[in-house]
Amino acid sequence: MLEADGLRKRYGDTVALDGVSLKVGPGEMFGFVGANGAGKTTTMRIIMGVLSADGGEVRWNGKQAGHEIRRRFGYMPEERGLYAKMRVAEQIEYFGTLAGMSAQAAHRSSDALIERLGLTERRDDHVDTLSLGNQQRVQLAVALIHEPEVLVLDEPFSGLDPIAVDALAGVLAERVSAGVPVVFSSHQLDLVEQLCDSVGIIKGGRMIAGGTVAELRARESRKRLRMVVTGAAPGWIDRLPGEIIAKTDRPPQGDPAVEDHDSYDEVILAPSDDQEALRVAAQAGRVRHFAWQEPSLAEIFREVVA
Ligand SMILES: Nc1ncnc2c1ncn2[C@@H]1O[C@H](COP(=O)(O)OP(=O)(O)OP(=O)(O)O)[C@@H](O)[C@H]1O
C-alpha cells in the first residue's frame, strides 16, 4: 500500500499543499485530478522524494519512504527528462543501470519494453527526432525499466493520439494486474473514469473528494432523470417538479422511434418528486425514455470543485 499522509508544502506565501492524504493499494489504479495549480505535481514530487515536504509522510507498505524504498518506485515527471541526443535503447538501458540494474539485465528489460511499446523501429533514433507520442513511450519505458513496485506518472496521457493512449493504457493495465499501485494525474476525465479504480479530486492543496467513481456518483447531490417524450403539447415541461438541468426539442438524427410529425422533448431534470415527474410526462405525451442518469466524472468534478 502506498500512502501519503497529511502532506504540507508552501512556496513562500503560496500554500501548495494543505494536508494532502491518499492511499493506493496493490493493483489499484488511482486517478489524480484537479484544476491547474491544484497541487497534483507537488504531491507526486513529494511522493517521489524529488521535493521535500514541510510536513506529512510518505509510506510504502507501512514503512516511511526513504531513498532506498523510492529507488523501487517508477516515475514519469511532468517536465519529462530524457537526454535529447541519446538513442532510444541506449537511454532506456542507461536509466536501468542508474536504478541499480546490471548492464545485461537493463539490456534485456529494455528490449522487452521497446517491443511492448511499439518502439522497435525507433530503437536507434535520437530522442529529439521522435514524435511527442513516441517520446512519451520512451519516458514510460524509463519509468518501467527496473520493474518498479510503485508507479507515479504525471500527466502521462497529455498530448497523445488515441492509439498511443491505448498503448500506454495497455502497459499500465499489465502493471496493475501484476499488483503494482499506479498513481497518475490527468485532465482527461473520460480516460480517468475509464481506467481508474479510484479517484482523488484536489482543489487548492486539499483533497476535496475521493473514492471509486461509483462512490463519488452516490455522493453527488443532485440525482438526475433523463426523459424523452414525443407528441406532447407545448408547456408541459413547466409542470415538471424540480430543476430543469437541460432540455432540447431536437431529436437525434435518424432516430426511427421519432416520427416526423411528432414533437420531441428531451429533458434532464433534478426532480423534487420522481413519481410526479413520471405522471406529468405520461399525461403530456408518449414517454419513450425515463431513467436515472449517471453523471460522468467530468460532471461530478465540476460539481465538487465549484
Ligand atoms: N517552484 C514553485 N515555486 C513557487 N510556486 C510553485 C512552484 N511549484 C508549484 N507552485 C505553486 O504551487 C501550487 C500547486 O502547483 P502544482 O504544480 O502542484 O499544481 P498541479 O495540480 O500539478 O497543476 P497543473 O495541472 O497545472 O500541472 C500552484 O499554486 C503553483 O503555482
UniProtKB/TrEMBL annotation:
Its main location: membrane. Pfam families: ABC_tran, DrrA1-3_C. It comes from the Bacteria. One of its GO terms (molecular function) is ATP binding. SUPFAM superfamilies: P-loop containing nucleoside triphosphate hydrolases. Keywords: Antibiotic resistance, ATP-binding, Nucleotide-binding, Transport. Residues 2-229 form the ABC transporter domain. Gene3D superfamilies: P-loop containing nucleotide triphosphate hydrolases (3.40.50.300). This is ATP-binding cassette domain-containing protein. It is found in: Cell membrane.
